[in-house]
Amino acid sequence: MDKMTVLLLFGGISTEHEVSCISAASVAEHIDPARYEVIRVGITCDGRWLLWEGGCDGIRDRSWEKAEGLPAACLLPDAGLSSLCILREGGAELRHIDRVFPVLHGIGGEDGTVQGLCRLAGIPCVGCGVASSAVCMDKAMTKAAAAQAGLSQARWLVAEPGADPSETVARVEESFEYPVFVKPANAGSSVGISKVRSREELYTALAVAAEVDPKVVIEETVIGQEVEVAVLGNRKPFASIVGEVAAQDGFYSYSGKYLDNTSGLYIPARLDADTAERVRAEAVKAYRALGCEGFSRADFFVTAEGKIIFNEINTIPGFTSISMYPKLMEASGIPFGELVDRLIALACGKEEELHG
Ligand SMILES: Nc1ncnc2c1ncn2[C@@H]1O[C@H](COP(=O)(O)OP(=O)(O)O)[C@@H](O)[C@H]1O
Ligand SMILES: [Mg+2]
User: Which of 6, 47, 110, 119 is most buried, judged by most C-beta within 10 A?
Assistant: First the structure.
């Protein structure tokens, strides 16, 4: 059997660059070298694409981006070539690519841009397509699509770019009680998000969020358990068992996610069997409503009364060995290596093989 050539993309221009490198190293370690030839390209914080021929540790510890003289390597949009163009000193070399696996989080990777480039190049790309990636990246768009599908959500409002902060504050105070959550529409990993308890804090939070994205979403606080479901598949998605994040002070912040271990993970979530089943069903409903393919992690709150409130879908969830997505899949009977295999197969629509 001929080996398939997979282009693994990591790094990227978003605030989640570092997490992406750790996720990508885990994926690279779990791709079967007997079946796949893996070409690794790192995208620097300022958007340069560089070929990395070193090991996984160099991806994880980010030494790849400190290395000198790495050849530029970019995906060509030409569907007749479906190739990576590598610019070495001796000249340009074209390498045919069978699949792209973007292990990129946030802007410029999880938002439909790379997916669009793959589409133009005629190369199947692992994960969600252009539209669902873009919609799931933008919290205002996600909420509109989820509402249309009948998913329960926290009440929210949107401050469009350039909105007058005092008008926004007045709208918020008319609709909600403090505390409220203020979020940049397009971001990730809790960057630019604040939980605010007063008018003064709201003004500051609006400015902080607008630094990240001029479009800002404000929503009421949901009191409940924070739960997550890993979903895998195209038209017949499989939902994992439910996991739970117990964040400090009800806010799963950037440091809680990656730095200080203040958040506890529970697999399975501390829910009764009936509620857990309902959460899984909502995850599949959200996945379908938002047009997801390949994989995604769907996040919800469950209130004390057992109400399930949709929060968001991450189309390229964290993929480190300690991340929720691979852990939930493993706990549901799909180990990391098999997961990577399935994701690559799903990129070209081979679902029937997977679910028998
Ligand atoms: N409406 C809300 N009510 C209660 N907690 C919230 C609400 N929105 C967000 N949070 C908390 O903030 C965290 C980050 O918000 P989220 O919308 O998931 O943004 P991100 O895309 O950065 O992960 C959540 O994981 C949760 O802990
Ligand atoms: Mg989140």
Answer: 110
CB of 21 within 8 A of CB of 62? yes
Q: Ligand 1 pocket: which of 252, 309, 314 to mutate (most atoms <8 Å of CB)?
A: 252
| CA of residue 213 to ligand 2 center, whole Å | 16
Every domain of the chain and the residues it spans = 4-125, 136-150+223-348, 156-220
Domain 4-125: top CATH class: alpha beta
| CATH code given to domain 136-150+223-348 | 3.30.470.20
228 lines ligand 1 (CB under 6 A): no
Starting at the earlier edge strand, list the strands of the sheet with 225-233. Answer: 264-266, 238-246, 225-233, 294-302, 308-314
Q: How high does pLDDT run on average in the chain?
A: 94
The residues with which 246 forms a beta bridge, in sequence order, are: 264
Is the distance from the beta carbon of residue 221 to the nearest atom of ligand 1 less than 6 Å? yes
- pLDDT tens profile 274-292: 999 999 999 999 999 999 9
> What gap in Å lies between CA 293 and CA 21, rounded to an integer?
23
Roughly how many angstroms between the first and final C-alpha of the chain, as a whole number? 22
The CATH number given to 156-220 is 3.30.1490.20
Q: Is residue 213 in contact with ligand 1, taking CB distance under 6 Å? A: no
Q: How many residues does the structure list for the chain?
A: 356
- Mutate which of 16, 181, 186 for ligand 1 pocket (most atoms within 8 A of beta carbon): 181
What pLDDT digit, counting tens, does each position of 43-60 carry?
Answer: 999 999 999 999 999 999
Q: Which position has the token pair 């989640």?
A: 16
Question: Measured from the CB, is residue 257 less than 6 Å from ligand 1?
Answer: no
Report whether residue 258 contacts ligand 1, using a CB cutoff of 6 Å.
Answer: no
